[in-house]
From TrEMBL:
Protein's UniProt name: DinB family protein
């Protein structure tokens, strides 16, 4: 189920990128000021790529991602990468070690594949929220209300609207 939720959020990203003009993807956003939409997309994709590509080794380190500048400037390459991730994301849960920078050292903690999928899902949604803000000035973009919104927030809002209509 968690892999399906990740694939669905990545589908939202595909739908968004299909609408986006190449310059609006790669140029610094006047709203975000210090980054481009493409940089946020690259960051999302590289974390997913780390998880999937390092799965077999059992040791995941997001700090050692590629930082491939082409993913932030070439929207078509980003779309290919999303499809690749979606094709490879459905892996069995297993215990993993997460290696992370801790100052000048590294720390390793136990985690699992499904836990890291949860992390990547929330991370993707967080960056989609930032992308959504950047799109406020792009009047040709049409995003679903759920773009950049956590599933729990959507469920809560739905439960509140049902409650309000029943009173």
């Amino acid at each position: 189920m968690i892999a399906r939720l990740n694939a669905e959020v990545l589908d939202q990203l595909v739908d968004f990128l299909a609408q986006l003009k190449p310059n609006d993807f790669s140029d610094f956003s006047p709203v975000l000021k210090t980054s481009s939409i493409g940089q946020h997309v690259r960051h999302i994709l590289e974390l997913y790529d780390c998880l999937v590509s390092q799965y077999e080794s059992g040791l995941v380190c997001y700090d050692h991602r590629k930082r491939d500048k082409r993913l932030e400037t070439d929207v078509n390459l980003a779309l290919v990468k999303i499809k690749e991730i979606q094709s490879n994301i459905r892996l069995p849960d297993k215990e993993l070690l997460l290696k992370m920078a801790a100052g000048s050292d590294f720390e390793t903690i136990r985690t699992s594949y499904n836990r890291e999928l949860c992390y990547n899902l929330e991370h993707c949604i967080h960056h989609q929220a930032l992308i959504n803000i950047a799109c406020n000035q792009l009047d040709y973009i049409s995003l679903p209300a759920s773009f950049g919104v956590a599933r729990s927030t959507i469920d809560y809002a739905n439960s509140q609207s049902k409650f309000e209509t029943s009173n």
